[in-house]
């Protein structure tokens, strides 16, 4: 079953501002910019305590970066890719102090990577505020070769690393920030159903 | 047994640590090794005061490395209903007691990157065990230990010897108090705070933590309530078909046990939730004292924690 109410499936409760936080460390991707604009609104006080990391992804033409910058966050870092954003985020988490509240918004694979980075730095995942925006594309790990693929919208999907056709299971790993992809034709090699676009 | 497996023990050593605190070393009668416990755990000690059974939770200080004994620390409470008074006045080396298996409601968060341990008075007992475990694991930690005066600090010498400058003392008589504005700033992300001590201290520390922007997930406390006495009332155990009287010096749970019903319990201090019981009806007002049920659940009148809460009224009917 591809869609189920399994416990490992993260729940994204939406961005809400923790007024007690001394610093808002916000990581946003693509359409997640709109969630940040809505949640933090016009409160200059909250923006003045914000370190904002943004990567436009597929939303670049909408130019949300300009709208974010116009609210004058205390620090604003625009990144060309998720990977470069994550590098900066990890460096910030390394030196962050308690009182820092972590927020993540964008596509699921991005949120998952931010949450995993938080967990690596001792942050309880329940204390990270998250909001899903944009496509339902999944980050998938091939359980056979352990390679990761971002933005997977179909199942089965051919592993970009080892070439095995993978069923994208509804089985999520918080540590890896990825859904698990398992060989779909292990018992009947070559018997691979047509790919369906399930995660739009 | 509703409280879990019980272990008969013999008191092998009693140490008067301060004027009001005694430490007891307990060894199993069976001679088998006592189970290892995770720091922060407690046991419930059953005492037999001339036929009257008293059960109190006490945090475990430590376990002998070969498992031959546990240590607990007991503060003599002035308004004791009997437990701490009995331990102080009657229990001597050689005596027998019964303890439950260790239960931990106050564990160290192992994913944390640093740990702030805050103790007030006898609240130091679980903190003592936690500090030792953190030291063994080479995890970063600080100990903030508040006491009335140096003479009442039951664990100062042992803590100082083991933890050196990681230990900071605060003495009421020197006008020294644990201040959240001093200990909370500049702690690295992923720090967890654990506080055990008097109610007012716990409240102040937790409030300070929330105001400093610490998430709830990083703030931990343990508070065992001693069941207070109160007006007597009747309890009807509907399923068992038993009616019993709850005396003024007795908790509801104790009265139920005296009536021969094996009701569920673990901590006997309003913290763990094990003894949550459905109220069928009550003639009077429920007097909730626990830290487990939410305010809404308290207001609903449908649940009661029988270890510490009671009825102000005539009769309480329980689904037991």
From TrEMBL, chain A:
Domain Dimethylamine monooxygenase subunit DmmA-like C-terminal: 139-182
Record's keyword terms, sorted: 2Fe-2S, Flavoprotein, Iron, Iron-sulfur, Metal-binding, Oxidoreductase
Dimethylamine monooxygenase subunit DmmA-like N-terminal domain ranges (all copies): 5-128
Pfam families assigned to the protein according to its UniProt record, in alphabetical order: DmmA-like_C, DmmA-like_N
NCBIfam families, A to Z: mono_DmmA_fam
Annotated protein name in UniProt: Uncharacterized protein
Organism whose genome encodes this protein: Chelatococcus sambhunathii
Lineage, opening ranks: Bacteria, Pseudomonadati, Pseudomonadota, Alphaproteobacteria, Hyphomicrobiales
From TrEMBL, chain B:
UniProt KW keywords: 2Fe-2S, Flavoprotein, FMN, Iron, Iron-sulfur, Metal-binding, Oxidoreductase
Domain spans labelled 2Fe-2S ferredoxin-type: 233-320
Cofactor(s) required, per the database record: FMN
FAD-binding FR-type domain: residues covered: 4-109
CDD domains, sorted: fer2, PDR_like
One matching Pfam family: DmmA-like_N
InterPro entries noted in UniProt: 2Fe-2S_ferredoxin-like_sf, 2Fe-2S_ferredoxin-type, 2Fe2S_fd_BS, Beta-grasp_dom_sf, DmmA-like_N, FAD-bd_FR_type, FNR_nucleotide-bd, MRET
Name of the protein in its database record: Oxidoreductase
């Amino acid at each position: 079953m591809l869609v189920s109410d399994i416990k490992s499936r993260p729940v994204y409760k939406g961005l809400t501002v923790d007024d007690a936080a001394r610093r808002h460390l916000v990581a946003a991707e693509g359409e997640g910019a709109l969630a940040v604009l809505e949640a933090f609104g016009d409160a200059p006080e909250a923006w003045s305590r914000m370190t904002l990391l943004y990567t436009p992804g597929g939303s670049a033409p909408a130019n949300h970066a300009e709208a974010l910058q116009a609210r004058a966050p205390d620090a604003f870092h625009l990144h060309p890719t998720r990977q470069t954003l994550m590098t900066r985020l990890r460096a910030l988490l390394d030196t962050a102090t308690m009182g820092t509240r972590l927020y993540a918004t964008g596509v699921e694979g991005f949120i998952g990577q931010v949450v995993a980075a938080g967990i690596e730095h001792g942050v309880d995942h329940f204390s990270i505020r998250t909001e899903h925006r944009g496509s339902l594309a999944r980050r998938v790990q091939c359980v056979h070769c352990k390679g990761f693929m971002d933005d997977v919208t179909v199942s089965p999907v051919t592993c970009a690393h080892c070439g095995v056709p993978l069923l994208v299971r509804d089985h999520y790993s918080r540590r890896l920030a990825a859904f698990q992809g398992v060989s779909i034709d292990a018992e009947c090699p070559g018997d691979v159903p047509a790919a369906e676009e399930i995660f739009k | 047994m509703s409280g879990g497996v019980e272990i008969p023990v013999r008191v092998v050593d009693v140490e008067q640590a301060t004027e009001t605190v005694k430490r007891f070393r307990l060894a199993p009668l069976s001679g088998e090794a006592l189970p290892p416990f995770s720091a922060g755990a407690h046991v419930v000690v059953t005492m037999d005061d001339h036929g009257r059974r008293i059960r109190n939770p006490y945090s475990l200080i430590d376990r002998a490395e070969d498992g031959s004994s546990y240590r607990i620390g007991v503060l003599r409470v002035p308004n004791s209903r009997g437990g701490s008074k009995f331990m102080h006045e009657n229990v001597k080396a050689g005596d027998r007691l019964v303890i439950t298996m260790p239960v931990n409601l106050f564990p160290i968060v192992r994913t944390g990157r640093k740990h702030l341990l805050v103790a007030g008075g006898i609240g130091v007992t679980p903190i003592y065990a936690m500090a030792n475990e953190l030291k063994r694991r080479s995890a970063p930690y600080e100990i903030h230990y508040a006491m009335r005066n140096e003479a009442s600090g039951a664990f100062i010498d042992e803590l100082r010897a083991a933890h050196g400058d990681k230990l900071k003392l605060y003495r009421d008589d020197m006008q020294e108090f644990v201040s959240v504005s001093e200990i909370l700033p500049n702690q690295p992300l992923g720090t967890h705070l654990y506080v055990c001590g008097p109610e007012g201290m716990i409240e102040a520390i937790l409030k300070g933590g929330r105001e400093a922007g610490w998430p709830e997930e990083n703030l931990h406390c343990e508070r065992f309530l001693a069941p207070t006495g109160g007006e007597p009332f009747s309890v009807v155990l509907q399923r068992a078909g038993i009616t019993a009287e709850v005396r003024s010096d007795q908790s509801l749970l104790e009265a139920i046990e005296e009536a021969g019903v094996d009701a569920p319990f673990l901590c006997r201090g309003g913290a763990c939730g094990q003894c949550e019981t459905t109220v069928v009806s009550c003639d009077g007002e429920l007097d909730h004292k626990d830290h487990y049920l939410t305010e809404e659940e308290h207001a609903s009148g449908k649940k009661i924690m029988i270890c510490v809460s009671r009825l102000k009224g005539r009769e309480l009917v329980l689904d037991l």
